[in-house]
Amino acid sequence: MKNRENIPRATIERLPLYYRCLDKMDTFEEVEVVSSKDLGGKLDIPSTQVRKDLSYYGEFGRRGVGYNVNELKRSVGKILGVDRTWEAILVGAGNLGRALVNYGSFAMMGFKITNVFDNDLNKIGNVINTLEVKSIQELPKVVQKNEIKLGVISVPAEAAQEVADEMVDAGVKAIWNFAPTRLYVPDGIEVRNEDLAVGIVSLIYHLSWQEETGE
Ligand SMILES: NC(=O)c1ccc[n+]([C@@H]2O[C@H](COP(=O)([O-])OP(=O)(O)OC[C@H]3O[C@@H](n4cnc5c(N)ncnc54)[C@H](O)[C@@H]3O)[C@@H](O)[C@H]2O)c1
């Protein structure tokens, strides 16, 4: 495998797409072998790109034959770290937080929200998908006891930095942030911002451009 630092971010971001597609083929479609052309075709990614992405991590498949779907799924799963389950905490048991906790398909990606926190006394004690909402004050104890490395932020933007600081102080190493604000974290802490508004605004941009130009 090449040095991880030299692997393009775009390649890393395509790996979950390969993994999900391979998992579907393996689990539901019982496909045994797939070519880079067919795998790429399902994802709108050129076969040359598929081969290049995978080549960063080693030699997979056989020329002229293709990839064994189950083997490649397991290899990509291992590279991604989804061959095990990563426990996560979520802070912010509001509309979005509830939707995330209720979403069942994260398990396939090796991710499981096991603790939910809020600071609203009306929410603490409520149950979301079998998880009782805990007071934010319990966060350090729970994170340390369970050695949880992953945190999800679904609080309003103005509370997000404070929550991120609390997570980092407790030992969280990677944050999935849904609040539309930039977070400042120490070196070595990974943040992934999920700004849903950016997606919809780019769609609206295209619609308004079409209306203006008639294209
Ligand atoms: N709802 C959506 O579809 C959606 C979509 C995109 C982005 N977002 C973003 O996600 C975040 C949450 O949105 P929402 O609609 O779920 O809001 P919400 O008001 O329904 O929920 C926010 C929750 O965070 C809790 N909270 C606030 N400050 C806290 C703190 N310091 N510690 C612990 N808990 C705290 C609140 O008590 C509340 O339960 C916002 O930043 C929003 O911009 C939401």
From TrEMBL:
Per UniProt, the keywords (alphabetical) are: Cytoplasm, DNA-binding, NAD, Repressor, Transcription, Transcription regulation
HAMAP family attached to this UniProt entry: Rex (MF_01131)
| Segments forming domain CoA-binding | 81-182
Q: Which residues bind NAD(+)?
A: 92-97
Q: What is the similarity comment for this entry?
A: Belongs to the transcriptional regulatory Rex family.
Q: Which Gene3D superfamilies match?
A: NAD(P)-binding Rossmann-like Domain, Winged helix-like DNA-binding domain superfamily/Winged helix DNA-binding domain
Q: What is this protein called?
A: Redox-sensing transcriptional repressor Rex
The protein's job, in short, is:
Modulates transcription in response to changes in cellular NADH/NAD(+) redox state.
- Main location as per UniProt: cytoplasm
Q: Transmembrane ranges?
A: none
